[in-house]
Amino acid sequence: MMLVLRYTLWAALAVSVGMCQPRERGRHIVYINHNNYPSLLYINSASGGSTSMNTRADTSDIIQLILYPAEQDSKRSRSAVAVLGGGVEGTIYFTQENPPIGTTRIEGEINNLTPGLHGFHIHMFGDLSDGCISAGGHYNPYMRNHGGPEHRDRHVGDLGNIEADQFGRALVNMTDPLVSLVGPRSIVGRSVVVHVGEDDLGMGGDAGSLKTGNAGGRAGCGVIGYA
Ligand SMILES: *[C@@H]1O[C@H](CO)[C@@H](O)[C@H](O)[C@H]1NC(C)=O
Ligand SMILES: [Cu+2]
Ligand SMILES: [Zn+2]
């Protein structure tokens, strides 16, 4: 579970102590991610001081409190792009309409694949100095097991499979609730990797399945940068 607190320190105190009244007028918004999925806590610091909370708390989770500077443009939508090479050819675009917790749309096309399913992930590093291998393992900031994109237990980087047609072309169009282009879960500066084989989404029943999905070698990769 992650708690992202923005705006003034006064709002921070009000939330953590639960009593201080924020001095500044206006709405303070606290972003909370419970169980991998975003929910919102609104705090209205204006005279009425209405508070609403919509969360699925799991008290066993670790809470991370992050203070952001109140940038004027902190809620503007972001885009990023990755150009894939290393055996395949393709471009993947990322768009996040409501950062830092809004879902991210991931769309594009990858060519030169073998027909069928291919594991598709965000890997930790944007380092391709030794080809796709130096991109490291799956991006996994919460130290979870490997899983599928719909699973609660998954790496942030686990985007499942993409499917190439008989011409080796895969069209990608998905949205993901964990992938973000800003903040503590940002994937910018990391890599997209497409694998030679299919990702078993953690259901393979062996140790490798819970680590990598047994998706095999790396067919191609690209560094994710802001666009
Ligand atoms: C992806 O799907 C969304 C929603 O169905 C659609 O609006 C968008 O145009 C699609 N993108 C591509 C590249 O096909
Ligand atoms: Cu991978
Ligand atoms: Zn994974």
Salient structural properties:
227 residues, mainly beta, Immunoglobulin-like, eight-stranded antiparallel sheet, 40% strand, globular, disordered N terminus, binds 2-acetamido-2-deoxy-beta-D-glucopyranose, SOD-like_Cu/Zn_dom_sf, Superoxide dismutase [Cu-Zn], SOD_Cu_Zn_dom
Name of the level-1 CATH class of the largest domain: Mainly Beta
Major β-sheet strand ordering: 11-9-13-14-6-7-8-12
Judged by helices, strands and strand pairing, the structural class is: mainly beta
CATH superfamily of the largest domain: Superoxide dismutase, copper/zinc binding domain
Strand content: 35-45%
Q: What is the count of DSSP helices, taking H or I runs of 4+ residues?
A: 1
Q: What coarse outline follows from CA principal-axis ratios?
A: globular
Q: What is the CA-based Rg, rounded?
A: 19 Å
Average pLDDT level: 79
Q: At CATH's second level, what is the architecture of the largest domain?
A: Sandwich
Description:
The protein has one helix and 14 strands. It has 227 residues and is mainly beta. Helices cover 4% and strands 40% of the residues. The chain is globular and about 40 Å long. The protein folds into two domains: 2-70, no CATH class; 78-226, Sandwich (Immunoglobulin-like), CATH 2.60.40. It has an eight-stranded antiparallel β-sheet, with no helix packed on it. Strands 4-3-2-1-5 form a five-stranded mixed β-sheet. 39% of the residues are buried. The model is unreliable at 1-27 and 33-65 (pLDDT under 50). The site of 2-acetamido-2-deoxy-beta-D-glucopyranose has 2 residues, from loops.
